[in-house]
């Protein structure tokens, strides 16, 4: 049977950085050529970064992407990659642009270009647009109607884009066209505890298509999302032929021996999940026989390592892709800010991590000593600025009491962090965990202040677990555990009034987190949560806390946003991107 | 020809308040019966409020809405409205629920129920889902496939829901079925300077359908949106038969004389923009002849009155629907906070408006005296809390300079407002205008702090225009103009350093606002803005300011949000709603 050396380029693209992303493509194509690769596949929207959200509709970006993909084809040939077939995601435009209700402005399409010998030999637009969870693609893209089958070295290769794989159609089309390989570029974000749904899906579609399936995904952070890579090649019997690591860039090279292309072709008017088939022959002669490489299959990360790595990746890319080098945050000596410190040190290096200790009249001695111990162990920089004199100066005019007085302390700290951030250029991090944010155990414009909140999606029980895990691997590696044991073992407290403990206001964290998992993560109604066996009074208490907190959080948005239209909502464009209108 | 007395119930529904909204329906139905009405039509999603965003997918809300609409039908009969035909929007569920990719969770539908004699005699789901601008309905609703034609008093009445009217289909279906009246419930938000596109559209569709068209819309504020009513009845020749006022609730009653229903009916498999027709006969006998009422047509508001009323409506409903009575904000004596004060006094009454003057070492005498003059003229409450001692207490530790020092003052003020808000229960307002927010002339966590920003969508030049207009109508009404003349005429300044003026940092506001209108409002690329005749250097400067400000604003979100799924985006549910999970 003919052979094909396939490479999956699992890379970290940056939204809006067309020049940097094109350089990444060229670099990986050259590496692929050096390794004798015949076909290299890049992730979804490689050239523009992903997801673009409403940026996809900006005419200047569409035009730059259309011109950019043409230039990239020429450049690849110029740089010695003309024989290689490269599949590169980019932003295109439906040729017969319509300006009508229901058509996104400027008719953008989420496309893949098949590049060979300095030219684009085939183009395909995503058909099934991702429009649930964090996806809102129907708002931004016009759906495509074609699935390409391209012949490379006498092997027929079918192409599907990300969400298309989750629906019926592409695998049926691949089977109908007798394609031996189905390649799928993706932009698929990480979720914790998702099991191995990707492999199961890929194996199922490979079996349906009676072909080998190659799935390539992005890596890196984008706003609140983290892409975890985990690119896979699997055959029709479910055997994994290659699998890349998680979170890190990688060029996964897999040697395949596949059935030769046949003349089988469905009739012109046949449709597969709405898609018609278009066939393109690039090279019909099989490549000269060669010795195949051994298959590579990366070790899977453990649950805690996987989550911790996602947190490190998300923070690192948020900071760097936004043009910062260093971060600053309040270090109370508690477990949350200490875990954030450990993540930040791992992501950015201790020289770029600045903790600020802001003791109040009610801060315990161990708060200060635990923060200092963490700084000593990791080498991060720790400054201490007591808030008592500032607190007194406010209270001379305000005379606040109760909750207002507690919040005042948290807000004084935030003003200090933002002042130091403005003066020295560090990005401010918020250290809240998911359990306290979900229940509103947090001060708006106080500890909630920050550009990025590394552990906002980590429940408190998992905060402790990750802290213990991080210390354990340090021991395994023969390093000093970064997190002081006392920080892990002491009872949590906000220290905003004398003797305060979290348990005064919240249910025990193990019970709380179990209900939050059902009500927030799994989005069950309260009746269904109770039906799982949780105490009804506890469920009632937690659901009330969550609903009230969500309501409060939304009442106080970040501050005013600017709308595209009067009285409209803020434009939905990514936070992290480098696209600029040039005049 | 048969007669029909039609009422359009232009009401202010509240998202999630099913009990309150049902009461509104009953109240208006009883008023309609008292006036001899045969058919009353309520706006889109009347029972649940609109827009629901991701709340639409909550099973408990869907079930409450389905039960609620059945109960409402029974209650209307019990309360003496059994003979009346009422069309009421509500949240329903596609009967054969699918849990599959591409189907919104729990298969919600944006429905209208046709209620008569204690029962629901027809149901219709919205077909064309609004998915651009502030609409994201494809994410939340399953599309319908049917257009209803119901016969009332021997007259055939066709039904279309909001966005369906903007597409081809409903008017063609009405014509094909020989319907004499096409009724359209809407949730259509206000936009400034939209001209009279609604009337033009209604007249066009009436002509296409060769029928009378009745368009009914919501009124009131919902988060950042304001619904302006403006319900319309227009015939096939474009003659307006009735039109309600803007922004206020109203029961618009219109007498129609219409052709009797014919037996004309398209074949079962004919489709109109994807819609099939379903016919229901409620009453086929014409109503006894009666003396028609004169037509009512409200006076249109002038541009400034319209915008000012939208601002008052939006603020009033944001405060009240979120359970607050009173507001608090920084009053600098400048034009922005003074206009906000005038809007707040008109929306809530002076007894619910609290201004805080926070002079610094660099505040001018006129700042303090102008704020005091405004308070004196309107009766709002004004407190003065100087920030110099607090500023000094921060600077003893921080020694901030330049921009960081300027921002510190703005943030000290915000901490004072939030402290007083927590202590006394007032909602904090942010007073920034669109020109300064768009260009980033504002402090994150400083003057940008607030639950609601009444003039965030008002450019600076319009701030002055509205202030002058508000004073002029006061004079016309023989009242004291609320806004001190000096506040309107003095040059704008942030007063964060000695002698500072806005013009040190920004282009003149008339030039700035013209470019912002093109670049932000009309979403033109910079090349197109220059092609309109603006100075390229000015365009470059403004575009750079806007892009950098947008980027900065997004880097510092409000603080962490809580996601439904790990690493996902915040749930998209409305800020203002009263829906609660009961256990």
Automatic annotation (TrEMBL), chains A, B:
The keyword Transmembrane helix does not apply. The active site is at residues 44, 126, 162. Its EC number is 6.3.5.1. Residues 4-258 form the CN hydrolase domain. GO terms for molecular function: NAD+ synthase (glutamine-hydrolyzing) activity. It is an enzyme of class 6 (ligase). Pathway: Cofactor biosynthesis; NAD(+) biosynthesis; NAD(+) from deamido-NAD(+) (L-Gln route): step 1/1. InterPro entries: C-N_Hydrolase, C-N_Hydrolase_sf, Gln-dep_NAD_synthase, NAD/GMP_synthase, NAD_synthase, Nitrilase/CN_hydratase_CS, Rossmann-like_a/b/a_fold. L-glutamine binds at residues 132, 188, 194. Deamido-NAD(+) binds at residues 407, 436, 552. Transmembrane segments: none annotated. It holds the Pfam family CN_hydrolase. It catalyses: deamido-NAD(+) + L-glutamine + ATP + H2O = L-glutamate + AMP + diphosphate + NAD(+) + H(+). ATP binds at residues 330-337. The keyword Transit peptide does not apply. Keywords: ATP-binding, Ligase, NAD, Nucleotide-binding. PANTHER family: GLUTAMINE-DEPENDENT NAD(+) SYNTHETASE, NH 3 /GLUTAMINE-DEPENDENT NAD + SYNTHETASE. Catalyzes the ATP-dependent amidation of deamido-NAD to form NAD. Uses L-glutamine as a nitrogen source. In the C-terminal section; belongs to the NAD synthetase family. Belongs to the NAD synthetase family. This is Glutamine-dependent NAD(+) synthetase. It comes from Aeromicrobium panaciterrae.
């Amino acid at each position: 049977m003919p052979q094909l050396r396939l490479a999956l380029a699992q890379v970290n693209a940056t939204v809006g950085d067309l020049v940097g992303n094109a350089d990444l493509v060229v670099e990986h194509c050259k590496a692929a050529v050096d390794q004798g690769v015949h076909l290299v596949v890049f992730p979804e929207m490689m050239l523009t970064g992903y997801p673009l959200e409403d940026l996809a509709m900006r005419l200047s970006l569409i035009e730059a992407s259309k011109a950019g993909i043409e230039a990239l084809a020429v450049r690849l040939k110029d740089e010695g990659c003309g024989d290689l077939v490269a599949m590169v995601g980019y932003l295109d435009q439906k040729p017969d642009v319509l300006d009508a209700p229901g058509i996104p402005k400027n008719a953008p399409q989420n496309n893949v270009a098949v590049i060979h010998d300095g030219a684009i030999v085939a183009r395909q637009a995503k058909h099934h647009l991702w429009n649930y969870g964090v996806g809102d693609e129907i708002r931004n893209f016009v759906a495509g109607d074609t699935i390409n089958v391209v012949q490379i070295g006498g092997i027929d290769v079918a192409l599907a884009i990300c969400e298309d794989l989750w629906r019926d159609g592409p695998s049926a089309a691949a089977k109908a066209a007798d394609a031996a390989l189905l390649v799928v570029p993706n932009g698929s974000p990480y979720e914790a505890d998702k099991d191995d749904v990707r492999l199961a899906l890929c194996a199922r579609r490979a079996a349906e298509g009676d072909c080998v399936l190659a799935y390539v995904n992005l890596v890196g952070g984008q706003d609140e999302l983290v892409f975890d890579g985990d690119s896979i090649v699997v055959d029709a019997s479910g055997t994994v032929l290659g699998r890349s690591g998680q979170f890190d860039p990688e060029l996964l090279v897999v040697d395949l021996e596949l059935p030769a292309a046949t003349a089988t072709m469905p009739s012109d008017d046949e449709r597969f999940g709405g898609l018609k088939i278009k066939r393109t022959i690039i090279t019909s002669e099989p490549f000269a026989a060669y010795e195949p490489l051994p298959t590579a299959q990366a070790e899977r990360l453990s649950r805690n390592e996987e989550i911790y790595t996602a947190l490190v990746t998300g923070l690192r890319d948020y900071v760097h892709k936004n043009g910062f080098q260093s971060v600053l945050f309040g270090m109370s000596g508690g477990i949350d800010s200490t875990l954030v410190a450990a993540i930040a040190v791992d992501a950015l290096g201790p020289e770029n991590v600045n903790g600020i200790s802001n003791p109040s009249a009610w801060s315990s001695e161990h708060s200060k000593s635990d923060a200092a111990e963490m700084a000593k162990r990791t080498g991060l920089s720790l400054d201490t600025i007591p808030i008592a004199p500032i607190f007194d100066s406010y209270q001379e005019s305000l005379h606040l009491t109760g909750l207002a007085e507690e919040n005042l302390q948290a807000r004084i700290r935030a003003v200090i962090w933002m002042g130091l951030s403005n003066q020295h250029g560090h990005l401010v991090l918020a250290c809240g965990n998911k359990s306290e944010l979900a229940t509103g155990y947090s001060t708006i414009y106080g500890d909630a202040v920050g550009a990025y909140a590394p552990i906002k999606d980590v429940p408190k029980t998992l905060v402790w677990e990750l802290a213990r895990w991080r210390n354990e691997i340090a021991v395994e590696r023969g390093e000093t555990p970064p997190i002081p044991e006392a920080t892990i073992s002491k009872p949590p407290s906000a220290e905003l009034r004398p003797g305060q403990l979290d348990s005064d206001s919240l249910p025990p964290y193990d019970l709380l987190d179990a209900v939050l998992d059902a009500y927030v993560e799994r989005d069950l109604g309260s009746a269904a949560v109770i039906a799982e066996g949780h105490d009804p009074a506890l469920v009632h208490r937690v659901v009330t806390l969550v609903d009230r907190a969500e309501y409060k959080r939304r009442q106080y948005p970040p501050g005013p946003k600017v709308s595209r239209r009067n009285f409209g909502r803020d434009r939905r464009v990514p936070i992290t991107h480098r696209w600029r209108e040039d005049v």
